[in-house]
TrEMBL record:
<keyword id="KW-0658">Purine biosynthesis</keyword>
<comment type="pathway">
    <text>Purine metabolism; IMP biosynthesis via de novo pathway; 5-amino-1-(5-phospho-D-ribosyl)imidazole-4-carboxamide from 5-amino-1-(5-phospho-D-ribosyl)imidazole-4-carboxylate: step 1/2.</text>
</comment>
<keyword id="KW-0067">ATP-binding</keyword>
<dbReference type="GO" id="GO:0005737">
    <property type="term" value="C:cytoplasm"/>
</dbReference>
<keyword id="KW-0436">Ligase</keyword>
<keyword id="KW-0547">Nucleotide-binding</keyword>
<feature type="domain" description="SAICAR synthetase/ADE2 N-terminal">
    <location>
        <begin position="10"/>
        <end position="266"/>
    </location>
</feature>
<protein>
    <recommendedName>
        <fullName>Phosphoribosylaminoimidazole-succinocarboxamide synthase</fullName>
        <ecNumber>6.3.2.6</ecNumber>
    </recommendedName>
</protein>
<dbReference type="Pfam" id="PF01259">
    <property type="entry name" value="SAICAR_synt"/>
</dbReference>
<comment type="similarity">
    <text>Belongs to the SAICAR synthetase family.</text>
</comment>
<dbReference type="GO" id="GO:0005524">
    <property type="term" value="F:ATP binding"/>
</dbReference>
<dbReference type="GO" id="GO:0006189">
    <property type="term" value="P:'de novo' IMP biosynthetic process"/>
</dbReference>
<dbReference type="InterPro" id="IPR018236">
    <property type="entry name" value="SAICAR_synthetase_CS"/>
</dbReference>
<dbReference type="InterPro" id="IPR001636">
    <property type="entry name" value="SAICAR_synth"/>
</dbReference>
<dbReference type="GO" id="GO:0004639">
    <property type="term" value="F:phosphoribosylaminoimidazolesuccinocarboxamide synthase activity"/>
</dbReference>
<dbReference type="InterPro" id="IPR028923">
    <property type="entry name" value="SAICAR_synt/ADE2_N"/>
</dbReference>
Length: 297
């Protein structure tokens, strides 16, 4: 997102990050949508607001379980040089503490789907965790599992075993990440169930910020439990034995497969009806989880 003369320090597939002083960052969620590692040629209206508002909801819901890096999402509290961009930033941005990020994607799975299902078909395990034989796609697992991934900034994150995490960050932090990831997943999935949703799997990112006592505090960071980072299914339609309709980008991926896109640039634009249906799915997830009917203007 272009903010006058301000230049982002990082432009991701969806988010743009700007420096706010030396110890803070401005996160701005755009309406871009990506699939198969490419940003597509269409915007999905309000998508960035959904991602931001859901992250804010979950940061607040989980605040007694895990601290986070959020400072404010109220544009009235932003620095003076950002006030001129209030209309563009309202509802889709937040100012956060700059964190020293842990270079591990912390994934929790309660159901067998996505890359976990592919791994299971090939090895009978997910990230080295052996699972019972005979499980079907989308089956509920005997218990949630921690299935980390190595961050890959040039493509898909790579599923790895727990030993990889131990080697990367040390045994103590690895255990903390696993325990915290599963605790957050447990709390979030229980809440989602109360709203008629199944949280099949999700990924978290953690980082360290200075604590009040002068040490380092491990915090939940980036986006949290959004349709871009999580797989939500309607409980009322749950039918294991195949893929489930979800609130993530699978609807877009299915369209791209139907038109047999070669997954190379240039990325195609989406038809209006696909954009509209995708927007509706994001908004439905927002409404079901938060109980709110409208996004911030």
């Amino acid at each position: 997102m272009i903010l006058g003369d301000l230049k982002p320090i990082l432009t991701g597939k969806v988010r743009d990050l700007y420096e706010v002083g030396t110890d803070r960052l401005l996160f701005v969620a755009s309406d871009r949508i990506s699939a198969f590692d490419h940003v597509l040629g269409s915007l999905v209206p309000d998508k960035g607001k959904v991602l931001t508002q859901l992250s804010l909801f979950w940061f607040d819901y989980l605040r007694n379980l895990v601290p986070n890096h959020l400072i404010t999402a109220d544009v009235r509290d932003y620095p003076a040089d950002l006030q001129v961009y209030s209309d563009a930033l309202r509802g889709r941005s937040m100012i956060v503490q700059r964190a020293r990020m842990v270079q591990v994607e912390c994934v929790a799975r309660g159901y067998l789907s996505g890359s976990g299902w592919k791994d299971y078909q090939q090895t009978g395990a997910v990230c080295g965790i052996a699972l019972p034989s005979g499980l079907r796609e989308s089956d509920r697992l005997p218990e949630p599992i921690f299935t980390p991934a190595a961050k890959n900034h040039t493509g898909h994150d790579e599923n790895v075993g727990f030993d990889h995490v131990v080697d990367a960050v040390g045994p103590e932090l690895a255990e903390r990440l696993r325990s915290l990831t599963l605790a957050i997943y447990g709390a979030a999935s229980k809440y989602a169930e109360s709203k008629g949703l199944i949280l099949a799997d999700t990924k978290f990112e953690f980082g360290f910020v200075p604590s009040k006592d002068g040490g380092d505090l491990l915090v939940l960071a980036d986006e949290v439990l959004t349709p871009d980072s999580s797989r939500y299914w309607l409980a009322s339609g749950y039918a294991p034995g195949g893929a489930q309709p979800s609130f993530d980008k699978q609807f877009v991926r299915d369209y791209l497969e139907r038109i047999q896109w070669n997954k190379q640039l240039p990325a195609p634009a989406l038809p209006d009806e696909v954009v509209e249906e995708t927007r509706a799915k994001y908004l439905q997830a927002f409404t079901l989880l938060t109980g709110k009917q409208e996004l911030p203007e």
